[in-house]
Amino acid sequence: MTEHSPPTGPVARGEVTEQADERTQSAYDKVYDVAVIGAGVVGSAIARDLSGHDLSVVLLDARDDVGDGTSKANTAILHTGFDAKPGTLESRLVRRGYELLSAYADETGIPVERTGALLVAWTQEELDALPGLRDKAVANGYEHCEPVTADEVYRQVPALGPGALGGLTVPDESIICTWTTTLALATDATARGTTLLLGHRVAGARRVAGGSGEEGAGPGEDVTVLATPRGRVTARWVVNAAGLGADVLDGLFGHERFTVTPRRGELLVYDKLARPLADRIVLPVPSSRGKGVLISPTIYGNVMLGPTAEDLTDRGDTGTSESGFAFLLDKGARLMPTLLEEEVTASYAGLRAAVDHGDYLIEPSVDQGYLLVGGIRSTGLTASLAIAEHVRGVLAEAGLKAAVRLDLPEPPRMPNLGEAFLRPYEDGALIAQDSAYGRVVCFCERVTEGEIRDAYLSPLPPAGLDGLRRRTRATNGRCQGFYCGARVDALVATKGGTCQEAAE
User: Fold this and answer.
1) Given this model, what pLDDT does residue 498 score?
2) Which residues of 323-350 are buried (b: 16+ CB within 10 A; e: fewer)?
3) What local confidence, expressed as pLDDT, does residue 26 receive?
4) For FRET with 184, which of 49, 91, 192, 411 sits at 20 to 30 Å CA-CA?
5) Boundaries of each FAD dependent oxidoreductase domain copy (predicted)?
């Protein structure tokens, strides 16, 4: 499904930064049709969709890279929406988003594995809940769930611990690379003309009346001036897709519609040798608290156990905890005891934007030229393209005129990070063309010098080591950079120059 595509056309390394600086300076001198705040998967999808129309779009983010917030640390499941609440906006957009993102992944090379999922009932209460879950799936437009016996549960996942009473299959649940998804959408958006401003935390918003002569506000054309530490950005419409900060940003526009509670989810990632134990997603029967602890293969060939669900007050606390590990190990001992005998490659924690509302909050304030896109839970990855489509419709109803462009560039072809598909180190034809793809730098993840070079020559190069890891998997393996760290750091210092250049 995924093929490697090196960048087209040579670009000098210093030229990228210089051009970016010029674009950033000019960004403060114009009035955009739409400013999208938040360059995660949802904000990037919105910017991409809007810039496919006759609109000027700017995408802002407080961080120095796209997808560096909530979007980078989740369970990376492409959901069918079978267990969403029927009749909600979330249910409709997840179902539509599954179709759109599946097609977009095929088009751009985002790796997806159609593993399927199995809900497992461990108690009589959970077993009794399965028919209702199947009925809910049908109400959501998904008709492929089937109840199975305990014997069939163990036939499908032999490594499960004892005591399972039955299950429910969800054959179309899949795993996807969330890193590549966000990067593809942001890259596509910028290719379509979106201006990307990273490191631009929005600290204030001021509405300027049309005809005042201030900030480019023309006759009958109100605008909003966004204050950031690097300069002011002016737009006719503002879309708030700020994730964990969406309620704070909503407050800058005078609203108190909801509160975001950062919910920490800790996960354990097991070595690739554990992959035969879990060839599909193993789900718990969901509760009001959430979807619970699952076992899932990852697109990178590992097996994941988690997440926890701990409400915090600190919106930046992505540290792992002893109590979180103890909780996961206790759950894992029941779910799949043999998994705990495998080596843990990594542990990490992500923050989800839990809100005091039962559905997505996509609400316009027309007099302010402002649209809230909040309350987007973990299903936001799957729903991202459908959310973008819906946002465009809401803005059109609010009076934003947007004609479809006929001159759109081809979507980007993304480098493959999926373990199940051909990667550069094993592609003999590619190595024959360019030997850099045969020089492995990170041996745990089989990342080559050519891939690191390509990351820095790409339209959206990494801002640091974490960004490089999300683009290549470098240092993401069992040694966590212990063996390759020095070489990778040297390549980071030379912005993807060859190992020989890095040594000089």
Assistant:
1) 56
2) ebeebbeebbeebbeebbebebbbbbbb
3) 73
4) 91
5) 33-391
Residues 222-256: tens digit of each pLDDT: 999 999 999 999 999 999 999 999 999 999 999 99
* Domain span including residue 128: 114-174+261-355
**Domain membership flag for residue 17:** no
Number of separate domains in the chain? 3
Q: Name the 3-class secondary structure at 298.
A: coil
Amino acid at 281: I
| Residue 332 contacts residue 277 (beta carbons within 8 Å) | no
Instruction: Evaluate whether residue 419 is within a structural domain.
Output: no
pLDDT tens digits along 7-55: 333 334 444 444 555 555 577 889 999 999 999 999 999 999 999 999 9
pLDDT at 12: 41
Fill in the DSSP letter of residue 378. T
CATH number of the domain that 333 lies in? Answer: 3.30.9.10
Last residue of a domain, one of 346, 372, 407: 407
- Give the separation between CA 374 and CA 67, rounded to whole angstroms: 17
As given in the structure block, the two tokens for residue 190 are 């910028």
Taking the alpha carbons at both ends of the chain, their separation in whole angstroms is 39
Find the radius of gyration of the CA atoms of the chain: 23
**Total residue count of the chain as it appears in this document:** 504
Sign of the dihedral through C-alpha 286, 290, 291, 295: negative
**Do residues 218 and 349 both lie within one domain?**
no
Same domain, 127 and 216: no
Amino acid at 151: D
Distances in Å between the alpha carbon of 317 and those of 264, 309, 314, 325?
A: 8, 13, 6, 16
Decide if 426 contacts 7 (C-beta within 8 A).
no
Structural domain includes residue 338: yes
